[in-house]
Predict the 3D structure of the following.
Amino acid sequence: MKTLIQTTATLSFLLLGGTAMAGAGHGSSGHGSTTALGAPGHAEDVDREIAVSMTEMKFDLDSDEIRPGETVRFLVSNDGRVVHEFNLGTPESWKAHDGEMRAMFKKGMMSMRKIDHDKMMAAGMMHDDPNSVLLEPGETAELIWTFPDHAEQVDEVAFACNVPGHLAAGMKGEFDVATDAAAES
């Protein structure tokens, strides 16, 4: 189950000291540095939940507003017909991650409709970074994330699908950053 995979990734991240992204084979995967993006969150610290539906080349979120320092549980579902990813990152991290995603396709670790977790594990490319969920059609998962404390850092964080061709087709989005003043009005 994907929730178990994400929990394992979060635990791995915490055991490694939180200084680098978790996951074997991801040394410079391009998923991003957690210091700039925030960090994996804990269930007991969740401030609220945001439902995310992925379909062909689009995300539907029931809210795109994020507050600095907030911990959000993203409930992600792939309601499309092909594999999709919900990845918190930046345009730079997505560009850096593009080669790995293309290699995963080329080596048969995933296709447009399936993910071969055994092949990914054998190659050390489990794609289990705590800021990302990769889902087959019909699958769901959760991602718990604590955003940075400063509005300008939160403003850098966005979301995208890194499945080859999807980002280029526009499958990305930005969060609206709520400041305390904006939240009170």
